[in-house]
Amino acid sequence: MNWTNAENIPVSNNQDVFTTRWRELIKNKMNFLSNNIDPRNTSCMVPEVAESWIRSKEFGVNPDMKTMGYMLSTAEIQELIHQNSLLIDTAVPLITTFKPLLEISGYLLVLFSSDGTILHQEGEPAILSSFNRINAVVGAVWSEKNVGTNAHSLSMRLKRPVQLLGPEHYCLQLEDNISSASPIMNEFGHVIGALVLVHQIRGDSPWKNNFLNLQAHTLGWVSSMGVAIEAQLKLAQRNYALKMTNSTLKATLEYVDEGIISIDHEAKIKHLNREASRILRLNQDEAVGRDLKPFFGKQSNILKALTSVKPIEFLEVSITNQINELQYLLSIKPISEDDNCRNGAVLRLANVDKINALVNNRVGAKAKFRFEDVIGNSEPIKKSISLSKKYACTNENVLIIGESGTGKELFAQAIHNECRPLGPFIAINCAAMPRNLIESELFGYEGGTFTGAERNGRPGKIELAKGGTLFLDEIGDIPFELQAVLLRVLEDKQVMRLGGQRSIDVDFRVITATNQDLYKLVAEKRFRQDLYYRLSVLNIEIPPLRDRGTDQLLLCQYFIDNYCEKRGQVPPKLSYATQMRIVEYDWPGNVRQLENAMICSVNTTQSIIIDLEHLPKEIIESNQPKQVTNTSTLAHLDVVSIQAAEVNAITNAIMRCDKNVALSADLLGIGKSTLYRKLKRNNLTHLIK
Ligand SMILES: Nc1ncnc2c1ncn2[C@@H]1O[C@H](COP(=O)(O)OP(=O)(O)OP(=O)(O)O)[C@@H](O)[C@H]1O
């Protein structure tokens, strides 16, 4: 039907407000469309509607079009539905509840996306099919740009409910409708869609009906539906966020390699991660609701802590599952609403072995030397290396015998790295440790064992060596009374802490070292014979430095190069006389003494030569030099040639005399002209410039 001619509308004497408004609107639209008369200047026009008419005209919308909007492609529709899934899932169930009412009342309820595309609609079959005829179907885009002024576009633009009365719609096809629209906004106030309730007025003279009351109701209805959808959306969004947080938390907990258990106020399991279910040997379903207390046996302090409001940190506990008893570090964080009432707690179980490995790593309980680091080509050292390599991969205890500073620990580390490189290397010097501490150091202690001890107890070095090597240096100095305990640990491979009740399994290898004659100590009853035999299953002797021939000079250069490299310095060379003294010297302190002597010499010399005078005093003044019978000892060495010695001497003198030629010549015991000649011959004239 066409109501665009206002003159066709009969005006009766008792014409009501509604009819008058309808008539005026038609008149205005005709004036605007045909004569371009600005609709904003008319009293019956809502300004926002007038502006929308103007925009619609500017967009080039044809007010007489028969089918409205345009269709999206199937793929575009799928994408749109996916993007608006939360809105659709929330709004459609609500719209559906009104379906029976809509079907008998001549109404159509339509859900639009924020860009004006139809997402869903329900209504009376007659109105639905009449709207379908003008392309009001799911996937059709009905924006202001292509269908002109309409209620849903205006409500989304103005962010408030809007009602359009028949001729207020821009297109003729919509003029027999009263449309009430409510925008739908998300929690951030962004418009995400709109809901429209359309009432189609049928009959030839719609203006005769007073729809004022109806208008008020429909606008109220659609607005409250909009509010309800928004509330549902917020809830759905929160639920979604909560779900996401929950699954992120779950994934994080699964990833953590510690056992995490949450319990209620009675210590019943509420949730546990994969590691905890592995520790307790319970799958996650059977664990929920189970009492956690039995897993801690009779450890009364833990049983109390499980239901207490006080947190605990890193308490050593043993957990008994169906198969075995395991050591863990337990932390409990109570969850309480206030200080006195506890709702539950979260427990953390950290694997003691992993923590020990971490601590060992951090405190440097690692062996850094390998056999490649053992410097020496002499027959005696080559023999020690080859024997050590043979013994390295057996699991037997090894006793290393050698004078002080010969490299016993170096060999122990190399043996460890050959077969247990990933395990800890725990070294104890039995001579350096106070007698009263050595026992607790070795075996550890339980909490409260003695005054000054840590409250929670502490593992001993033997426990820390689990999976690796325990290196007991100067084993001859271990107190006699401890020898029996050590023997038992070595035999049983179990350790009991001081003050403890339970034995802890320890798998480790023992390497001992001594510079004493252990068998003599046995004869003197200062060392237990049974322990001696247990420790010395395999023996390795490290030769003293004086028996290693030219290894001494190899070691010298190795230590000089190493030291200078660290300091970014050019390594000096040993003069012939220095080399002679080094091989003659007896080296009572062995390699350690030689290393220190080289560090001292590098620091003393100011030049590229280490001369006799730069060696430590005891070596220079040593009055019992070892006789070098065979000068071929030095033959393979980097012996300084006479010319090189001359260059060194001249360089040295000129540097010491601050480039003063006369003084330098004096110092060298030659004349000035001879010095000039030598400088020239050796290409050293740059030194005096
Ligand atoms: N053959 C070698 N090659 C390289 N460095 C060595 C060699 N022998 C010993 N050293 C070095 O000499 C120093 C002393 O060695 P180490 O501590 O192993 O001797 P030790 O016999 O265990 O001494 P002590 O009897 O005093 O315990 C260390 O810095 C070590 O790295």
From TrEMBL:
Pfam families: AAA_lid_14 (PF25601), Sigma54_activat (PF00158). Residues 374-598 form the Sigma-54 factor interaction domain. InterPro entries: AAA+_ATPase, AAA_lid_NorR, GAF-like_dom_sf, Homeodomain-like_sf, P-loop_NTPase, PAS, PAS-like_dom_sf, Sigma_54_int. Residues 245-292 form the PAS domain. PROSITE patterns: PAS, SIGMA54_INTERACT_1, SIGMA54_INTERACT_3, SIGMA54_INTERACT_4. Coiled coil: none annotated. CDD domains: AAA, PAS. Keywords: ATP-binding, Nucleotide-binding, Transcription, Transcription regulation. SUPFAM superfamilies: Homeodomain-like, P-loop containing nucleoside triphosphate hydrolases, PYP-like sensor domain (PAS domain). GO terms for molecular function: ATP binding; sequence-specific DNA binding. GO terms for biological process: regulation of DNA-templated transcription. The keyword Thylakoid does not apply. Transmembrane segments: none annotated. This is AAA family ATPase. It comes from Desulfosporosinus fructosivorans.
